[in-house]
Amino acid sequence: MINLKQFEAWFITGSQHLYGEETLRQVAEHSMQIAKALNDAPQIPVKIIFKPVVKSPEEIYQICQEANTAENCIGVIAWMHTFSPAKMWIGGLKVLQKPLLHLHTQFNRDIPWSTIDMDFMNLNQSAHGDREFGFIMSRMRLNRKVVVGHWQDNEVREGLNTWLRAAAGWNDMQGAKFVRFGDNMRYVAVTDGDKVEAEIKFGYSVNTHGIGDLVAVINQTSDAAIDQLIKEYEARYVMTKSLVKGGDQHASLREAAKIEIGMRAFLQDGNYKGYTDTFEDLHGMAQLPGIASQRLMAEGYGFGGEGDWKTAALVRAMKVMGTGLKGGNSFMEDYTYHFDPANSLVLGSHMLEICESIADGPVKCDIQPLGIGGKADPVRLIFNAAGGPALNASIVDMGNRFRMLVNNVDAVAATEDIPKLPVARVLWKPQPDMKTGCAAWIYAGGAHHTGYSQNLTAEHMTDFADMAGIETVIIDKNTNLNQFRNELRWNEVYYQLNK
Fold first, then answer.
1. Which residues of the chain have pLDDT under 70?
2. Cα end-to-end span (Å), the chain
3. What is the pLDDT at residue 195?
4. Are 395 and 411 a contacting pair, CB within 8 Å?
5. Which of 50, 207, 281, 446 has the fewest CB atoms within 10 Å, i.e. is most exposed?
6. What is the DSSP string of 38-69?
């Protein structure tokens, strides 16, 4: 889908002229060593680029401006090897527009007890140099991530990995275009919102095309292209007999392939990174895009049902963040509950559009009736999703701000056959438990549509939300409902005062 190695994070070390050329030479050598080691580390998904040590307000300002305009730079990693007076950083930090990570480390892991002297102390001053740097960022109320520990520790590298993936998702969102085929599902609140404010806050645009514009592209699809795509279906999926050539519903499969080819062409021609549709607006289409949306998501496109553009953009960002990691990311919906006190579960699904990247086991290509929309029976992929740790994330428009809501969940393998449910599905247990997790989600105004992830964590989502400057609310195994409700009240006051 996307090659994260095309991106760069700039490693910038702060010092000052006070220490003399020999000390500054050692600072540069140590910084180059750290940057190279991080660049070569298997956990680090992007290139780490060493930049010359900055020693003055002018140098700091210049490097921050260069980072802003460097197309492949997705963020800055800053470290104070020595003491770097923080007023030097004010001008650069004021103009820096890329995400910032403060790496609180030092070159040596251990204190050399028998040889340590003042020369060593003057060179290795991160313990208080980084505190000076931390103060100015706090004083300026800047969002950033702080990672603490020795640069060779796996835990530190994993912290960098998480932040860099979030930065890649944020970078991908800047200037991204999402298209709505038709409008929002009628009368629905949570899938709607302020698209102008979203473009200001997140950097992506959302614009509508009438379904006729899409249908015109779909109708240009050639029979040869349809034949080729059907061969791919037959090679990849377990086909229902009625859909194969000679079957009484093979024409529906050809129509579904035609829709997929046309939608992909429309998205590519418009340079769109995701889209929404709605079953209430299908004029000129024979069936609701089912397999088309599932497969386009698997390629990396964001998707939101019923006009849900916020979730379409979020799913795309999660796809980018999860690139190369085991597991997948998908559009999702909390559909129905299993309220057994001994084994409470949520069944997550949608009418059609769950991404095959989360599938566990064989994927069936089938055709089944759809009770809404008034169109022909749509072709879809049916599968179970794997068990294991996962999360659901939602971005909602609270009127005066956007809120990111994340619930850690534990997905479980299906314990019962559900042969009559003709859609892809996943079962999960919300953390910390069914009643607390669901109540907290509802108190926070979380949407019924989410981005579901098998390979991202709440830390990825929090880092991403910090880059956007939006509120983050986490529901996990430590959630206490009374404390959670108080947190929501405190957040309300904070964001009113922070306007």
1. 1
2. 38
3. 97
4. no
5. 207
6. HHH-TT--SEEEE-PPB-SHHHHHHHHHHHHH
